[in-house]
Amino acid sequence: MKLLNYILKPLKFGFFQSRLWALIVKEIAQIRRNKQLIFLLLFPPIVQLTIFGASLSPEVEHIKLGVVDYARSVESRELVSALTENRVFEVVNYSPNQKVLGQQVETGKIAVGITIPQEFNRNLDRGTSTKVQVLLDGVDAYTSGVASGYIAQIVNRFNLELNTQAVSSLADTRTTFLYNPGLISSWFFVPGIMGTTLTLMSVITSATESVREKDAGTLEQLLMTPASAEEILLAKVAPLFVLLLGDVLIALGVARFIFNVPFQGSFWLFMAISAIYLFTCQAIGILLTTISKSKQQVILTSFFITLPIMMLSGAFAPLESMPTFFAYLSLLNPLRHYITIVRAILLRGVGLEVILPNAIALLIFAVVLITVSANRFRKQVS
Asked: For residue range 140-155, what is the model confidence (pLDDT) as tens digits?
């Protein structure tokens, strides 16, 4: 603090002689003494982004496959080989009969079971269709759905390879993937995890730092000073806001240098939108402070608020996959708009004219929540 006062000594006029600056200096001193808070602001974002970004993926590989091959022919072995050549399925055992195969699916030893009938080769020679039974473990609905789609595609390709007299298609499609040519799943998940991590950190730290005065019993002392409620509130928000902007830069660095997520858009537009969103989250944290009496209460309440915000944001699953009611309800979620903007700036490189509706919605959320939080805080301290 001596060094800070020395640097600012020539500038000590106007703002630097105000009550607000004195309160900000007090908050900075308290944050510097709170080593745990600094650790929580720096370390968890890196760990969370790294772990979730690496572990969350819609791709499914090495699905445990069990086979009953009654035909025992070259064609049946080619069908099994076609299923396993792309590493989606992995044959873990060949069962002697269909009853054993069903028991293995029931006990969870395999996720998919295939029964190739004895007449498989004979029907292929005759050019007639053959029914291959597929058993799927529906407990994991997502994996079962992916497995069913893969099996349908592989069997269809297997049929085309066997039918040498098939007529070539009259129409041919050429597909180009824009903005993510390699279909890298982390490019979708990491921006969403950035938003959820910043939400969690901003809300919890703002709430716990604001409620600290209640726990320490020093709020009454602040009220006895000439400072107004607005100055007290702004002094608590400003230093933490600067630290949270550092979290934004850390999250962006992890996304860029660990997961190679591209940055196609404007850096300053990204930081401006992030600043608005941080103000929104801090307003939520202060609002939680006004309805909580202790740090324990505010932490428990924050999880009650932040978890629905994260689940309805589109961070982990596309918004199109949500039920219609929740898809419309997510329009009232500021995190949804922030993640939409972040993905548009990072991956598409768009400007403000494209993300303007989401930016306006985010700004409205910030203004409304800050106004409500400030009014409740003012009534509480008065």
From this structure: 677 788 888 888 888 8
Same domain, 38 and 97: no
Residue 234 shares a structural domain with residue 271: yes
The candidate with the shortest Cα–Cα distance to 119, out of 111, 131, 105, 101, is 131
81 and 47 both lie in a single domain = no
Query: How many independent structural domains does the chain possess?
Result: 2
Same domain, 198 and 329: yes
Q: Domain span at residue 84?
A: 63-162
∠ Cα 234 238 240 (to 5°): 125
Q: Order of strands across the sheet with 133-136? A: 89-94, 63-69, 112-116, 133-136
Residues 313 and 240 in one domain: yes
DSSP states of 251-304: HHHHHHHTS-----S-HHHHHHHHHHHHHHHHHHHHHHHHT-SSHHHHHHHHHH
Q: Is residue 18 part of a domain?
A: no
pLDDT at 7: 41
87 and 152 inside one domain: yes
Query: Which of 113, 130, 162 is the last residue in one of the domains?
Result: 162
Q: Read off the CATH number of the domain in which 92 is found.
A: 3.40.1710.10
What's the CA gap between 145 and 112, in Å, rounded? Answer: 11
Per-residue pLDDT tens over the stretch 307-318: 889 888 888 877
Q: Determine the Cα–Cα distance for residues 162 and 125; give it in Å rounded to an integer.
A: 10
Residue type, 211: V
* Rounded Cα–Cα distance for residues 351 and 86 (Å): 40
User: Could you read off the pLDDT of 200-253 as tens digits, one per residue?
Assistant: 888 888 888 777 766 655 555 555 555 566 676 777 778 888 888 989 999 999
Q: CA–CA distance from 51 to each of 56, 189, 229 (Å)?
A: 8, 11, 41
Would the pTM count as exceeding 0.90? no
Distance CA 233, CA 26 (A): 13
End-to-end CA distance of the chain: 31
CA distance 247 to 110: 43
